[in-house]
Design goal:
With about 450 residues, this protein is mainly beta. The chain has two domains: about 1-230, 3 Solenoid (Pectate Lyase C-like); about 235-455. It contains one helix and 35 strands. The protein has one helix at about 45-60, and strands spanning about 5-10, 30, 40-45, 60-65, 70-75, 75-80, 85, 90-95, 110-115, 120-125, 125-130, 135-140, 145, 165-170, 170-180, 190-200, 210-215, 215-220, 225, 230-235, 240-255, 255-260, 270-280, 285-290, 295-305, 320-325, 335-350, 355, 365-375, 385, 395, 400-405, 410-420, 430-435, 440-455. The protein has a 19-stranded parallel beta sheet that branches. It is elongated.
Length: about 450
């Protein structure tokens, strides 16, 4: 089964529907059953759901209820301002698997789509399911091959698949107490995402959990994300991203658990990631700055994680922390990364920390305080490689370092422990620190240790 959960804050033509007769709605709750929804999972309920939404919006807002039990098959439905979609516990909203179920423009391929709304949301305790398994052409334990709807030329490659939930150019968004399951692909201002569970197929690419694209003042709390691609991924495609807080969450991913970029045309500023558990991910905390945007004032704190190797077709080489900036293409501007703090971090990883700026895009003023890094190999994938993808130098053969440093001005190490569990695995050839002095300056080490804990 393939799944792609995705909440994308970004940018549909409304479906043209004639409203059915409008039954009375009790206390602002409008049931789709009153508008003709079958809820059998076989017949499309799109018209009934959209009619309920329009009636709710015309009444000044409220909740559109998908009652339980029921499986409601739908093409894209469009939320309106002050309308909250409530999927009751035991109910499911199922996304259609046909290209004609979605708008012509690929950027608007969502099961639930809100554009230019205020106060719209999703809740209820039930499930929104993208039927991602229907989009797998060839199942592969390393990386599934997905269907591609690129016949119109509006998109390319395996990104030509629908997403689950999208809020575009919207504000005061509230998403809570909902399960997002089996998406087929991967929110703008003042967004709250709380108690959301996201389950995506572990072998499906472009299967992000939550993408925060060009969105500000976002709070994500108490979320559980288990998916194949990046789990929480701020992107700055058309405008800056600032004031993002992520707390009290659990993540497993075959890619990067928390990643800024790689779409990074504008700045990222004032981001906080606190009290997060990361399990068996290909990367832990990452930044891929490739398009000239700058990053500043980011705090990672109280994080426990384990990172491991997966097949090299996935970006990443088991780095617990991966901070990079370089031009995506020759001639691109190089962004800088500055004032980044890692506080109270514990990891068990199959590779070291990778900190690589570029000649005109330095990493500045990085601080590691109370950090415990355990290095241990337990898979048989090839080590000795640094992964710069996308762009830059791609995959580069290199000795493994507890920390590998390039193009840095200002690195403070305070109470950092490196613990090496070397075991008997061949190829585990490591150094505590690797760097070229000509590219690194202003280093400060206080209470730093590198210890062998087993042989």
């Amino acid at each position: 089964m393939a799944s792609l959960p995705l909440l994308l804050l970004a940018v549909s033509s409304s479906l043209s529907l004639s409203l059915l007769s409008t039954p009375a709605a009790a206390a602002g709750v409008f049931s789709v059953a009153d508008y003709g929804a079958a809820g059998d999972g076989l017949r499309y309920d799109t018209a009934a759901i959209q009619a309920t939404i329009e009636a709710c919006a015309a009444a000044g807002g409220g909740r559109v209820l998908l009652p339980s039990p029921g499986s409601y098959l739908t093409a894209t439905v469009h939320l309106r301002s002050r309308v909250v979609l409530e999927v009751a516990p035991g109910a499911r909203l199922l996304g259609g698997a046909r290209q004609r179920d979605y708008p012509p423009e690929s950027r608007r391929w969502y099961v639930v789509l809100a554009e230019n709304t205020t106060g719209a949301g999703v809740t209820g305790g039930g499930e929104i399911n993208g039927q991602g398994g229907e989009f797998v052409v060839t199942p592969n334990p390393q990386k599934n091959i997905m269907v591609s709807w690129n016949v119109t030329g509006d998109c390319k490659g395996d990104e030509c698949r629908p997403r689950l939930v999208g809020f575009i150019d919207s504000k005061d968004v509230r998403i809570h107490d909902i399960t997002l399951n089996q998406p087929a692909y991967w929110w703008c201002d003042n967004t709250m995402i709380h108690n959301v569970s996201i389950f995506g197929d572990f072998d499906t690419p472009n299967n992000d959990g939550i993408d925060i694209d060009d969105s500000n003042n976002t709070v994500i709390t108490n979320c559980h994300i288990d998916t194949g691609d990046d789990a929480i991924c701020p992107k700055s495609t058309t405008s800056p991203v600032y004031n993002l807080t992520v707390t009290n969450s659990w993540i497993r991913t075959k890619s990067c658990a928390i990643k800024l970029g790689s779409a990074s045309f504008f700045d990222f500023k004032k981001l906080v990631f606190d009290n997060i558990t990361i399990v068996d991910s290909h990367r832990g905390l990452g930044m891929q700055i490739r398009d000239g945007g700058n990053v500043s004032a980011v705090v990672f704190s109280n994080i426990k994680m384990s990172t491991r190797y997966y097949h090299p077709s996935w970006w990443g080489r088991a780095e617990p922390i991966y901070i990079t900036t370089c031009p995506r293409h020759p001639g691109y501007k190089e962004g800088t990364i500055s004032d980044i703090q890692f506080i109270n971090i514990t990891s068990v990883s199959e590779n070291g920390v990778f900190l690589a700026g570029s000649k005109h895009g330095l990493l500045r003023n990085l601080k590691f305080k109370n950090v415990d890094l355990t290095y241990k190999r337990w898979t048989n994938y090839t080590g000795g490689l640094y992964d710069y993808r996308p762009g830059c130098q791609e995959m580069v053969k290199h000795r493994t370092g507890g920390m590998m440093l390039e193009h840095i001005s200002g690195l403070e190490i305070d109470n950092v422990r490196m613990r090496w569990s070397r075991g008997s695995l061949k190829g585990w050839d490591v150094d505590p620190l690797l760097f070229r002095p000509s590219t690194v300056d202003k280093l400060s080490f206080h209470d730093w240790q590198s210890l062998d804990v087993s042989r």
